[in-house]
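quick one if you have a minute, typing this from the bus. theres a chain ive been looking at and ive put its sequence and its fold in token form underneath. please have a look and point out which stretches look like helix strand or loop to you. anything you notice is useful, everything is just below.

***
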Amino acid sequence: WLGLVLLAAAALTACAQTGQVETSVVLASILTGYDASTRPNLEYNIPVFVGVELRVNHLYNIDSKLNTYVLDAFVRLTWVDERLRFNSTWRNEIRVDPTLVWRPDVITYNCIDTKTSAETLTVQPSGTVFWSRQVLLTLSTALDLHDFPFDSQNLDVIFMSFSYDATDFILGVFNNSRGFDPDPVATYNSPIWTMGYTNFVRSNTTLRSTEAPHSTVRLIFNLTRRNQSYIVKYILPLAFLVLLSQLSYWIDPMSPPARVGSSFTLVLAVVTFNVTIGAELPKLNYLTLMDWYVITCFLFAFLSVVEYAAVNHFMYKPTPEGKIIGRHIDSFFKYTAGPLWILVVALFFLQHQLTQIIMYVFASLWLFAGVVVVVNDIYKVVKDKPGCLRLRARVARLRDECLSKRPAPGEEPEALINEKEGDGEDEKADTTI
């Protein structure tokens, strides 16, 4: 048995040495006279096609303030170089030093920083070259935060050739229709984002330094923000704070310290929430959905202060009518402000356009009905006042004057009678002539 083991070891050693010798021979044969500075197919004036493939390891540090994110991935480029064809009975592919062969100068167009940790280049007998690199990319992307925190973002990885234009160099995707292997949707896991889909777009880009278009491949990650944290920490507490400010309408208006103190405290609390939320967002020249929500919260809380100022103005008038008007204003806000705020919160969560239209119509009708009731109550209070009586008498007098000038049924208006008489005299004059 010992002899057999030694014989097998010797055979394996001989095979390995034979393979190494053959690899050295193949490398020497294909690299003799090889010019690494010229691209493939140059003598045929045919563009070289380079396929791009991305294997995502990690995607993290999506920064809304800096509009950047970090991507750890394997970038694999493949192309065919006819000058590297070889025949081998031992190897399906051989490894080659990447510096000894031509490599496409594919850059990441939207990259801020790149770190390459490892790379390998293999050549198959058909001349197909595979160049793989593990890279850590810090990429810039334009984030659209209009719908924050219910937003979804498209993160781009833009590959393009720098020194070759589209007539010499064509970029495309390799191995599948998305340019990703495996699909990051199934492997990506984040506590903040959910990956929706991946896609690619192939186009041509014209650089400022050149006039010719350059072939470009744009790989896209679609991410949807997980908003549960924002709902629990910001949206619901603000909603309850504003609802507390609506409860101040139920406090007796003859107790100014209770109503004024609670209203001002809640206004300051809403302002504090606004500062906290603004610290998590970049300085934008537009308002996000969360900004509109905070502004609405502030307006509702501030409205409770303004409403009590108006009620207090009427309640402390020496006339009983002022107290009645103040009571009616307070009753109107007591029964409409709270339900209206609940509708606003529902509109914030319901993003469907038709649902929003129905809610807006319902809220408008609710407010209109409340205004009609309050105006009717105020009119009942002031209708017997001297000023109101004089106004009613004047309106009645104008109405009587208009009715007196209107002809009775069956009679013709005076102007029409005069017009007919004038026409008859003109006809007599024409007959005489």
